[in-house]
Specification:
Strand content of chain A: under 5%
Oligomer: heterodimer
Shape of chain A: elongated
Distance between the termini of chain A: 54 Å
Structural class of chain B: mainly alpha
Order of helices and strands of chain A: HHHHH
Radius of gyration of chain B: 20 Å
Strand content of chain B: under 5%
Shape of chain B: extended
Number of helices of chain A: 5
Largest sheet of chain A: none
């Protein structure tokens, strides 16, 4: 990146400490944190999904409305949407080289992940409180 | 004015001989992107359940159709593969499994394990729901 401001700092000096992302290894750490969380949650989540196979709406809402199942799914939703937000941001940063397009992409990514997360969480809370 | 230093760039992907670990690294990213889009299906499922019987019936009509089944099957594989491939990356993150034969073994395990788990899940799903 060309910087026209006069500075005594070298490009290398600027990129050090928290690096080009300005947030250090936060995303790297959270990517792994959410990955491990999902690895632990995947068996109960699969169990929940499989018990719902072939059930009608009444059967499904009864199961989804139960407290432990809702909590498992809520944890999984938070971990997965967070994980995918970081993952897609890495993909965008890798392939989109136009700075403005990149920022727009990262913004859209945040909107999408937040929308998926909140819509899913709201649906689960609604199911828990009895539709 | 900062001097732009022209450093050598690494050659593009076509230059390299294809290896298993390289191909599966690309598959890991591709399945990640597929799962990203697939969360729409998951969100739709929960929203439909919260909306009522007719919305849920619409969802089930879709997931029961050929295209729907194909998408859910693909989603299952992408999830299982990304999970096992991710565990493989985690092993590497911890500093293990870098010998040539270990790398290959981990990668084959993720590839085969992902397919096996997917088939297993669908067998269970059919046993429970009778193909719905």
């Amino acid at each position: 990146m060309s910087d026209s401001r006069s500075s005594m700092r070298t490009p290398l000096g600027r990129v050090r400490n928290l690096g080009a992302s300005h947030s250090g290894t936060t995303d790297f750490w959270r990517q792994r944190l959410t990955a491990v969380a999902m690895t632990l949650l995947i068996v109960p989540v699969l169990f929940v999904v499989l018990t719902l196979v072939g059930r009608n709406h009444a059967g499904a809402t009864q199961i989804l409305g139960s407290l432990p199942i809702a909590i498992i799914l809520l944890l999984f939703i938070v971990a997965s949407t967070w994980h995918m937000k970081i993952g897609m941001q890495v993909v965008i940063e890798d392939y989109v080289h136009n700075e403005k397009l990149k920022l727009a992409g990262i913004m859209a990514n945040n909107f999408f992940c937040a929308a998926v997360a909140l819509a899913s969480i709201y649906a689960l809370l609604k199911l828990s409180s009895g539709v | 004015m900062t001097a732009r230093i022209e450093r050598p760039l690494s050659p593009h992907i076509q230059t390299y001989r294809w290896t298993l670990t390289m191909a599966l690294s690309i598959v890991h990213r591709a399945t990640g992107i597929a799962l990203y889009a697939g969360t729409l299906l998951l969100a739709w499922w929960l929203i439909a359940a919260a909306s009522g019987p007719s919305a849920y019936a619409n969802l089930q009509a879709f997931t029961g159709s050929f295209i729907g089944k194909l998408i859910v099957f693909g989603y299952t594989w992408a999830l299982m593969h990304h999970l096992l491939s991710g565990i493989r990356h985690f092993v590497w993150d911890l500093g293990y499994g870098f010998k040539a034969n270990e790398r290959e073994a981990l990668t084959w395990a993720a590839l085969i394990g992902g397919i096996v788990l997917t088939v297993l899940i669908w067998i269970i799903a059919y046993a429970i729901g009778g193909g719905r």
